[in-house]
């Protein structure tokens, strides 16, 4: 189970990189070469409206599994260190978007991502105390692995994504 949990965490981190930086594009070199858009917003929630509130929600939800998988894999690490990892990872992705000019860099995304990871870490800790660690960990890892594989299969064979 430990190996599967570590593999699932690594796969999910790669999944988030693919999602945030390359929007599930299968042609990463052309994204880097052709999609040269750079914007920076350092004012939290400045661009949030009725039309794009779903993006904030998606960012929040996308980081929930990361928090859960960090909880499973790093029980001895404090909540605050795991949260610091989520924040640093999210910030690193946003900075990479800016440096490579492959998307909008927005502090709102960092806040939403980190909040999703934080909620998951809190839920994991609460469940760990009340539900039993072994059952909870098994459910999180197996469900996460199945959902991740299902998404990749659907993305590969059903959904065609055009990055432009």
Q: How would you explain this protein's 3D organization?
A:
The chain is mainly α. The chain has one domain (2-43, 56-157). It has helices spanning 2-22, 28-34, 53-62, 64-73, 79-100, 107-130, 133-157, and strands at residues 37-41, 102-106. It has a two-stranded parallel sheet. The model has no long low-confidence stretch (mean pLDDT 86).
Q: What's the domain count?
A: 1
β-strand number = 2
What's the Cα radius of gyration? 17 Å
Spatial sequence of strands, sheet with the most strands: 1-2
Number of helices: 7
Secondary-structure element string: HHEHHHEHH
Helix content: over 70%
- Quote the distance from N terminus to C terminus: 40 Å
Quaternary state of the chains = single chain
User: How would you describe the shape?
Assistant: globular
* Average pLDDT number: 86
Alpha-beta classification = mainly alpha
Largest sheet: 2 strands, parallel
The percentage of residues in β strands lies in: 5-15%
- Which segments are poorly predicted (pLDDT under 50) over 5 or more consecutive residues? none
What labels would you give this structure?
two-stranded parallel ribbon, 7 helices, single chain, mainly alpha, 2 strands, 164 residues
């Amino acid at each position: 189970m430990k190996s599967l949990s570590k593999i699932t965490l690594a796969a999910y981190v790669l999944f988030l990189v693919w999602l945030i930086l390359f929007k599930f594009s299968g042609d990463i070199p052309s994204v880097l070469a052709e999609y040269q858009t750079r914007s920076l917003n350092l004012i939290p929630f400045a661009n949030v409206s009725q039309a794009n509130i779903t993006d904030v929600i998606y960012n929040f939800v996308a980081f929930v599994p990361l928090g859960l998988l960090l909880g499973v894999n790093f029980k001895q690490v404090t909540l605050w260190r795991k949260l610091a990892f989520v924040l640093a990872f999210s910030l690193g992705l946003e900075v990479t978007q800016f440096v490579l000019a492959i998307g909008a860099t927005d502090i709102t995304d960092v806040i939403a991502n980190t909040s999703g990871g934080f909620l998951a870490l809190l839920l994991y800790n609460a469940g760990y105390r009340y539900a039993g660690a072994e059952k909870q960990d098994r459910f999180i890892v197996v469900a996460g692995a199945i959902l991740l594989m299902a998404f990749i299969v659907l993305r590969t064979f059903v959904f065609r994504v055009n990055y432009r």
